[in-house]
């Protein structure tokens, strides 16, 4: 799997309905579900968390899940297929997948669907991962 492949599969999910804890594009996805569905479309069975709430005061422990799915922490500019954990609002953490050209795919609870758009500047990036095989030392 490459970052470009993951980004393309994430883009294919744009328009899917939003549903908290959703893992099926037909019935709805949340931000974790978008990552799981995109990974599945790339032939990877994702091991991702469940049972979380929409708002949370504590930063979720996603490192073991993301690392366990072939990603590694990285710094610097985003590349297609990179995954970002951001703070979308007070007590709200959110995952996005870089689609390239400064656009990101994510499940938008307010719009009730998966969208692709520019990265909201007001969302601080807390963690940034890339497919480990694509990280150049």
Main sheet characteristics = 6 strands, antiparallel
**CATH-assigned fold name:** endopeptidase fold (from Nostoc punctiforme)
Task: Write down the domain tally.
Answer: 1
Low-pLDDT sequence parts = none
Distance between the termini: 19 Å
Structure description:
The chain is an alpha+beta fold and 137 residues long. It has a single domain (3-134), classed as Alpha-Beta Complex (endopeptidase fold (from Nostoc punctiforme)), CATH 3.90.1720.10. The protein contains 3 helices and 8 strands; from the N terminus they run αββααββββββ. The chain has helices spanning 3-11, 31-41, 63-68, and strands spanning 23-24, 28-29, 71-73, 83-89, 92-100, 103-108, 113-118, 125-131. The strands form 2 sheets. Strands 3-8-4-5-6-7 form a 6-stranded antiparallel β-sheet. A two-stranded antiparallel ribbon has the order 1-2. Strand 4 (83-89) and strand 5 (92-100) form a beta hairpin. Helix 1 (3-11) crosses helix 2 (31-41). The mean pLDDT is 87.
